[in-house]
Amino acid sequence: MSRLPLWGAALLALAATPAAAQPDALRAAVAGDMPSLMTLYRALHAAPELSGAEVKTAAVMAEEAKKAGFAVTTGVGGHGVVAVLKNGAGPTVLLRTDMDALPVAEQTGLPFASKVVATGADGQQTGVMHACGHDTHMASWVGTARRLAAMKDQWSGTLVMIAQPAEETNAGATAMLKDGLFTRFPKPDYVIAFHDSAALPAGVIGTTAGPALAAVDSVDILVRGIGGHGAAPATTKDPIVLAARIVTSLQTLASREIDPQDPVVVTVGSIHGGTKHNIIPDEVKLQLTVRSYSAETRDKLLDGIRRIARGEAIAAGMPEDKMPVVTPFGTYADPTINDAPLTATIHEAFTKRFGPERVVQAKPVMVSEDFAQYRLADPAHIQSLIFWVGGVPQAKWDAAGGDAAKLPSLHNSGWAPDAEKVIATAAEAMTTAAVTMLGKR
Fold first, then answer.
1. What is the DSSP letter of 122?
2. Is the C or the N end of the chain the one with fewer CB within 10 Å?
3. At residue 298, does pLDDT exceed 70?
4. Full-model pTM
């Protein structure tokens, strides 16, 4: 996950998060939970585990759900935890937290900063950090579980709370679904999650109706040529020059071929070729990330990448057997769609509880999430919503003049949210969302 768009003057007015518009028993109960939730948060922050290795983290989540009174199953889709609380007739609501950390060496300077070192997916030793804020998500999830269990007189239906592994590799949701999440356990009518934001002041909530996060494709391009001596380029077919042409021309996909109101990203994140100053190599390798919000646009981008690579090779005089090889690896993540009716209902509930100063309409972003998979498992039956809870400490927000580009983003080694505000806000918001959809009618 990454930063939200800059909000500008509207959020500059939030120099101090205003008092709650509707103080009540829920807020007081969450406040009472905060000392233990902050202790839990600090423990999780100091002991992060990489994607697919969330053994101890999952055990903590399972134990907390059991103590709250849920029926708990572990080992779902790897280290996934499923906690179920049945409370009479009514709809089924699923609330998700993610658990995994990132291969990032922490540089926050926090007294409880992670010092964990582990072996990454590439086989190399790496520092490990909750640089995406999943520790705040988990603490909020525990707070939400406690509150909903204590408020059973205020809702009716079935609550399914899941702690998902491997979100950062976009594998955990699919793994849990394949392991029977919607067949072994009650199938939800609504799925809801939140993510901390590095581009909103702490305690501010953002919702987005419709496309909220992008689909992601990874594409490799092998640019082939005919190598030779750097002093005799006329005897070669230079793949470095061809690769440069391809990189430049790929930018026209977004600027000239896709509707400007349909956001896309085509980024060449890696380019490798050559070994020495005076040698023209035989090949250059490009690696791309491609992001879009619809299947139609995705297909246009992938087709355009193939066409541009081949067209530039023809223009460079490459023979047919030296045409570039374009290898899409399939959709790394599907677009995350927030259903408009559910989003409108929850946005209204948030505004009523927190006040309009703390609830904003957020723009879609080009980062990705595997939360989309839960809705896609049965889009005709399941509505979904993922919303944002701002995490930027107010003093840092003010010092940056509300310019998120001047602040550490998610996945940054310096990301240190105002965890207390994130957790308190999110626990109250997630509880509110669940009760709104499960409330006795």
1. T
2. C
3. yes
4. 0.89
